[in-house]
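For reproducibility, we list the full input for the 6-O-phosphono-beta-D-fructofuranose complex.
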Amino acid sequence: MRIGVLTGGGDCPGLNAVIRAVVRKAIDEHGDQVIGFRDGWRGVLEDAFDELTIESTRGILPRGGTILGSSRTNPYKRDDGVELVRATFARRGLDGLIAIGGEDTLGVASRLGDDGVKVIGVPKTIDNDLAATDVTFGFDTALHVASEAIDRLHTTAESHNRILVVEVMGRHAGWIALHSGLAGGADVILIPEIPFDIDEVCGLIRRRHERGRYFSIVVAAEGATPKAGTMTISAGEVDEFGHPRLGGIGYRLEQEIEERTGYETRATVLGHVQRGGTPTPFDRVLATRFGLAAIDAAHRGAWGKMTALRSTEIELVPLSHAVAQLRTVPAEEYRRYGVLFG
Ligand code: F6P
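The corresponding predicted structure, in tokenized form, follows.
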């Protein structure tokens, strides 16, 4: 077979581990040829690729990022997008493509599948917000980075009696905020799924002061929003998939909390630090398992499917299920931890 591979959307630790596993098994076990498209769907549209060999993918398992590059290109934003994808398939004699991505990249893969293009999906994202898989690789690494940062901020918050706001990633889903906040013993956790009331946030912080704890840690997902009419926030520019560029709620909270409580408050925005660097062992293993399963799925002709972790097993699920809706934090799960706040 001739198989294409691409990585699309925001990068995350573990992408290279998938690429390596696909290439190893495709070449050594199936006798395939593999090409890697540059920068996500852009490489397919522009026919920009590199041959991938066992040699060219050696040593990449622990490396963060993606050797293929990534972008947020959306073929459906162009009238000739699907035609260009088909033309590249024909020119390169491709039997199919393995698309490694999150909601947007896999959303495109699912639509292309409906348009007759042979694609298999592999789910990645630090946000852990894809339905149909218990977890995506990249999340565990991001969680480690965020939790370690919160631990470090804790000690300096305590020394200076400050309120420290930590803004973590998570556009629509608060998994990173919730889990890193729980792991780091945060006093307030704000997630996109549940609009927050700034009065309640300040109330929790004041209560800690009354109880003799003069510092607090507030973990906020970048997509956390105040209840309508309670606090102003600014909107950012949007990408090809219509997502606004976020980042900013941390600094708004810093201002607002300090003004309302009179306690010295500082914000730290973790940003892309959470997406960079070497993957944790958990993410390396999950990514490797997904890669091996994806190339086997291609040989079974399981086009239109996505690899998924269900309990401890890797399964194949329809791509359409994975992108039908986001896996967000259920309100009851968030509320269960309320007793730990403040
Ligand atoms: O989807 C993963 C993610 O890291 C989100 O948490 C974040 O909102 C977004 O990507 C940032 O994207 P970019 O790097 O394009 O600004």
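The mean pLDDT is 96. Residues 10, 102, 125-127, 169-171, 222, 245-246, 275 surround 6-O-phosphono-beta-D-fructofuranose (CB under 6 Å). Both points were considered when choosing residues for closer inspection.
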